[in-house]
């Protein structure tokens, strides 16, 4: 039987201090998911989960997300082999976001570009201009080779 989450309580105390996990999905039925490496804390990605993705994540221990652009459930790493095993799942104070600490399989890369993290660029301001600077250009796999087989990718 699929996991079903209880409705959030209208009592702020129960939401913030209670022991029942009652995720507060937004108007689109999503919660924000922040994903970090369980070993070193590196921020790997930010994605979204609908109730089905969150339930599958809890039930299987493998991270699932909801792709807003494709409007579809998405098992992270299914195409690339870089599955995310959930080591710990936390929620924030008002239960409208979750934090996944994961161990990444395969090439230890989360980004569909082949990099370890989706946050591989910094936003820099110099001489009145805003530019992006690549801070991590190490490719752990060739995205063209990995994704040409399926015509898709693990990207959101």
Low-confidence stretches: none
What is the C-level CATH assignment of the domain at 12-110?
Alpha Beta
CATH architecture of the domain at 12-110: Roll
The Cα radius of gyration reads: 17 Å
End-to-end gap? 28 Å
Number of strands: 8
In CATH terms, the superfamily of the domain at 12-110 is: Phosphoribosyl-AMP cyclohydrolase
Helix content: 10-25%
- Looking at the structure, what is the overall shape? globular
Strand order, sheet with most strands: 2-1-6-5
Largest sheet features: 4 strands, mixed
* CATH fold label of the domain at 12-110: Ubiquitin-like (UB roll)
Task: Please provide the ordered H/E string of secondary-structure elements.
Answer: HEEHEEEEEEH
Structure description:
The chain starts with 11 loop residues before the first helix and ends in a 9-residue tail after the last helix. It is of the alpha+beta class. The chain has helices at residues 12-17, 51-60, 143-147, and strands at residues 31-37, 43-49, 64-67, 72-75, 84-91, 97-104, 121-126, 129-134. It is 13% helix and 32% strand. The chain has a domain at 12-110: Ubiquitin-like (UB roll) (Roll).
